Amino acid sequence: MSDPTIAAEIPRRRTFAIISHPDAGKTTLTERILRAGGAIQMAGNVRAKGERRRTRSDWMNIEKDRGISVVTSVMTFNYGGCVFNLLDTPGHEDFSEDTYRTLTAVDCAVMVIDAAKGIEARTRKLFEICRLRDIPIVTFINKMDREAQDCFALLDEISNALALDVSPATWPVGRAAKFAGIYDLRTKSLHLKEELPEDDERLALMREEVELAEVALPPFEKEFFDEGHLTPVFFGSAMKEIGVTDLLDALAAYGPPPRAQPSETRDVQATEETVTALIFKIQANMDPNHRDRMAFARVCSGKLTRGMRLKHVRTGKQFALHTPQFFFAQDRQLVEEAFAGDVVGIPNHGTLRIGDTLTDGEDLRFTGVPHFAPEILRRVRLDDAMKAKKLRQALVELAEEGVVQLFRPQDGAPPIVGVVGTLQLDVLQSRLQAEYNVPVGFESTPFTLARWVTGDKAALEQFEALNRSAMADDLDGDPVFLAGSGFMMNRAVEMNEALSFHDIKQIG
Ligand code: GDP
């Protein structure tokens, strides 16, 4: 039986993340977007980060102390007839794995660029992740109320640095302290903060530049945008609230709506009636007294409703959705159903893991959620031997949550944790202390590189036997080879042609 609500709801879903280099203005833009979407209450929270954090568990203090945002979450709001799901990503690059996973759950990314600084290192890196999946990118050039680079130079830089066509959607009127608003190239309308006289020199300059831009730069073509080859560019100032609604209007107008999600067997279309969802993020509950965890699931197809029983494909067991949480800023209680593109939080006690698939019966596993080979490997030092068992359990739980990666050496040595950035170790240490009452330290290991090893069974077993002290099993029991240097890793790769060594593992 076909459900008409699915056909009606899918096209009006917009699920996106904001990618940027720290300080470009992501937090400010997020707040302005939420305000424009009427989610003022939420916006208040974004701003009052410090306030909110004070009530959370101890490890959150790391965020507060260092003024960084560790937590990924989702903010849902209505705007322009669309339902927007804005997935927040951690700003600090030590938590980049989290960001990458979140990007597997979006249909579009807004790339925020500081008008004075242009493309920066982290913007570029995050962009590359989006490109891997051909995620359409909308560009917002922020801080036009300050000294900025020449607009053409900025557009050139984006185009060259990212090998991407740029199409200006708006053009700034005035610069720096005299930034007055924008001109919309498609509707040919002016959106100004204040009235300007017809002969204002800022308008004259804008007309001159727009004329040139229209000749020199490609027009917006939705098809190229959808394929991730062309980015529409919006100029503005998040702080002065200029250009923000133009950005949202564009997202509402030309999407993109939820995309198909790749699985091992087939691409699942958003418009399918069958219910599917992908777990892309696990977060500890903010209450340290409960071991509840929140799994964030992106609905990939069908209609998900409260109380529904779904199949947890990895274990084959039934999973009842008793209390899915929706993150609408308004009318929180009224929302009982979610569609493709929506993100719901599912409280659980550790059943759900990153990369898991939930369906209404089909044996289907989504792919594409990555684990990255850690760049820092440390042995966990436990001072109180009585707590060894508790530590083992805690490490598994925190690794399932994605705080660190856990490697169990095959020779029985104490566990090794792997991280991409050292802040992850700080989070692990303070959470072990605060939530499990297990104080630990970290010791160096002889290893600097980790690679997942796959290949012919006999060859793999032989390799493991020969390298026992450098072999470990990851959380899923998959074998990992640890090496002390790039030289040693290369040697292992060269000498074992029957095996493959991977620096990215697709979960699922
Ligand atoms: P994030 O690190 O990307 O989240 O950046 P924030 O939103 O925290 O902004 C970094 C700094 O730039 C803060 O001091 C903001 O007040 C400032 N900022 C953000 N947007 C603008 C803008 O449009 N104009 C100006 N002048 N400053 C801005």
List the helices and strands and how they pair.
Elements: H1 4-9, E1 13-20, H2 26-36, H3 40-47, H4 49-53, H5 60-66, E2 74-79, E3 82-87, H6 96-103, E4 108-114, H7 121-132, E5 137-142, H8 151-162, E6 165-168, E7 170-173, E8 181-184, E9 189-192, H9 201-216, H10 222-226, E10 230-235, H11 244-254, E11 261-262, E12 267-268, E13 276-284, E14 293-301, E15 304-305, E16 309-312, E17 317-320, E18 337-338, E19 343-348, E20 357-359, E21 369-372, E22 376-382, H12 388-400, E23 405-409, E24 416-419, H13 423-436, E25 440-444, E26 449-455, H14 457-466, E27 471-473, E28 479-483, H15 486-495, E29 499-502, E30 504-507
Parallel strand pairs: 1-3, 1-4, 4-5, 5-10, 6-10
Antiparallel strand pairs: 2-3, 7-8, 8-9, 11-12, 13-14, 13-20, 14-19, 15-18, 16-17, 16-20, 21-30, 22-24, 22-25, 23-24, 23-27, 26-28, 26-29, 27-28
Helix pairs in contact: 2-3
The structure holds guanosine-5'-diphosphate.
